[in-house]
Backbone:
């Protein structure tokens, strides 16, 4: 039998299916990785915004992690929306207990429309509890500003923020450039503690970018689950999200989801 690669996402549910757990599982599946999930919160959400946030208690998160950890042994794990310090501490405890060392931390804080997905007081727990356990952290620019307390405008500041987040314990940092509006390219910065690698792609002019960060970090986790290096996994994640934004589905009246089929379609030669 061929080896089955397995990845676990610890994140919130997006009823609209473009971000959160749904984006993660679709991405795992498209990249040939068996997906598992531990829910932290249920959101009532669509392309127009977040209509409600219903967090789970930490014990419900712990129970799901024990169910997966005691039986299914994920090859890689990613975190998304964690909502509270209590949930972050529970997740960190289980990551340590089960020795999940291929951990991608996407420090989700605020949805694109401005709704908070992480309590302000939980940012410190993210820094002290989870970043030190992470193999890869994938902040966007506002998240990097919140983690570091810096205001980031130019490339030099972005590099400085990546170094700071690395010193918080993330062995690799991908500082994503989606929010750097007004530029013709999108520059994601990968820092490995030693050198900067610049992943640049043309900026696609579209409003359909709901869940780009979730999809990107899930693709990176899928690559790690398959045994790829961090650099390989991040390069594939960039190609996956670029295709998913380019071939957008155009659904919903607001900020629509990306096309999770796009990368696989291209690989299979079925271009839309
Ligand atoms: N308009 C765009 N064109 C091309 N690539 C983009 C665009 N917007 C985002 N990306 C890519 O998508 C990935 C996610 O970046 P972004 O900075 O948007 O994350 P995010 O803000 O965490 O996403 P979200 O919170 O919506 O899930 C990055 O690899 C980035 O380069
Ligand atoms: C559940 C959830 N997680 C993450 C994001 C960030 O895109 C979102 N909008 N919703």
Residues:
């Amino acid at each position: 039998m061929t080896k089955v690669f397995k990845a676990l996402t610890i994140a919130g549910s997006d009823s609209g299916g473009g971000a959160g757990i749904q984006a993660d599982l679709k991405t795992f599946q498209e990249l040939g990785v068996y997906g598992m999930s531990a829910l932290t919160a249920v959101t009532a959400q669509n392309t127009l915004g977040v209509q409600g946030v219903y967090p789970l208690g930490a014990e419900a998160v712990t129970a799901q992690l024990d169910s997966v950890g005691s039986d299914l042994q994920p090859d890689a794990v990613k975190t998304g929306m964690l909502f509270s310090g209590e949930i972050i501490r529970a997740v960190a405890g289980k990551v340590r207990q089960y020795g999940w060392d291929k951990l991608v931390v996407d420090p989700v804080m605020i949805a694109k429309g401005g709704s908070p997905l992480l309590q302000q007081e939980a940012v410190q727990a993210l820094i002290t509890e989870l970043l030190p356990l992470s193999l890869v952290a994938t902040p966007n620019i506002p998240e990097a500003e919140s983690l570091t307390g810096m205001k980031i405008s130019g490339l030099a500041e972005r590099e400085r923020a990546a170094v700071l987040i690395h010193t918080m314990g993330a062995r690799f940092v991908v500082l994503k450039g989606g929010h750097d509006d007004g530029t013709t390219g999108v520059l994601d910065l990968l820092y490995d503690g030693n050198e900067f690698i610049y992943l640049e792609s043309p900026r696609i002019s579209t409003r359909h970018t709901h869940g780009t960060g979730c999809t990107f970090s899930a693709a990176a986790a899928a690559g790690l689950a398959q045994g790829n290096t961090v650099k390989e996994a991040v390069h594939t994640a960039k190609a996956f999200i670029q295709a998913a934004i380019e071939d957008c589905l155009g659904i919903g009246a607001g900020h629509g989801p990306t096309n999770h089929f796009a990368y696989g379609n291209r690989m299979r030669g079925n271009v839309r």
